[in-house]
Here is the input.
Amino acid sequence: MEFKTFVFFVLATIMLLAALRVITARNPVHAVLFLVLAFFSAAGLWLLLQAEFLAIVLIMVYVGAVMVLFMFVVMLLDIDIARLRHRFWSYLPLGTMVGLLIVVQMALVLSGNYFSAEALPGHSMPADYSNTKELARLLFTEYYYPFEIAGVILLVGIIAAVLLTLRKRKDTKYQKPSEQLAVKRNDRIRMVSMPAEKDEPSVDTAAAAATEKREGQ
Amino acid sequence: MMEVQLLQFLQTQLGSQWLWVEPVWPLVWALMQIVAILAPLVAAVAYLPYFERKVIAYMHVRIGPNRVGPAGLLQPIADALKLVFKEVIIPTKASKALYILGPILGLAPALIAWAVIPFDAGLVLADIDAGVLYLLAISSLGVYGIIISGWASNSKYAFLGAMRATAQMISYEISMGVALIVVLMVSNSLNLSAIVAGQGQGMFADMGLGFLSWNWLPLLPMFFVFLISGVAETNRSPFDVVEGESEIVAGHMVEYSGMAFALFFLAEYANMILISAAVSTFFLGGWLSPVGFLPDGIWWLMAKISAILFLFLWFRATFPRYRYDQIMRLGWKVFLPMCFLWIVVVGVWMLSPLNIWK
Here is the structure.
């Protein structure tokens, strides 16, 4: 067995086990972490296919950002696993059917070179082949139009998400940092010019001092 | 080159015994390289807190650690010994496996990212084409150590600290990544060695004033964005709301003790050194010499890393802690738009006749 095949099987095994644990783990946080492990193994498999750009972007985007936010949400929610498992058996037939359908589709696509890492493309590339450069060339020439459309769709998604969460409550007190930073000295203090007060002893105090002196004697 | 010489030496020395070594040689060689990088790094991580205490002490007109060994030089060893012999306490109802895994996941990314940092021309562990992407991907994993340990501690302070840290680190990762896009545009490569080599060319480099043709000058705003985001990314003062001693005692590491706590400490300092190395590589010309009449070499990279590390310590001694909403505002509303604007500016610049990166 070639070393590459060995690595492939190790990664594939880890990935399948992790994926299985995602749906069987009792604690949702553990499930998210197993999903992270599955992503990592998938990135390893892509590296074997010399798709280093996709592999690293998978880790950067999904593991580094999306799954962290997932974890954020899962940690903050109070998820009751028992209630989620409530009608498990009644949903099972539907779930099984969907699962079988996916397996059939995958089998149709992969039939022929199923489970053989060598037969997949990417092994006959020249040494100076840069996956990143090739991908960029395709994206910005041949697939320029779909690429831009995908960008616009994402932008619409961003704006929609912002609009959904944008609501102002009248009773919330918050600071406006830009205003705070723009404050000048003259907004906060006022310089007043006042005549200096002279420290001359008045007649009353002089008399009081004289009485004190006499009493002291 | 070194590998070939070593290989020949070993083959002549071992003779017939070489047959046993040959199958595992790639593994042995890789491990030797890793140790050669990590051993000085760990030593630097151990002595950085000492350096920090000394620097801040002198800024406060104090003396700093001076009791253990000459000039206090054995202080880090004494601290490490103390932490090793302390018990690692696991809180009740903590998620035990994750509680142990947290600090390890915090430290590991700071160490494995060094694989792509070039120390000299050709002196790099993995000279891969997607080096910048690798660096970004690995540094985005550091947040797991914090969020896992915060959650697994089963403590409100730790959890709050982890939440803050995660939001802050994700925000500043984006500005760092976008600032690097500008660097990629001008150097036309994702390979770190190529990025450094590209900074050694240009009008000023030909005149013998290499430091003026490094990326920091033409990309000055991005240099500041990357440096400041780096400080925020490592949760250092003035962005250290993650620990926030006065508010949430120590954030995600409040429940940790002994060696597990020491790992967080090591991770913070290892990350500082990593960010300094990244700043030096992307903006300060890596191993390149600042002037024409001095030779290039690894010592220049060391000097640049030390200078940036000194900046980190200087910030800590100078600035008060940022307010949390201001941190988020700075990341999202100041740095990110600035990066996007600069992408456009540099793009126009590169297409204009004034292009200096041909």
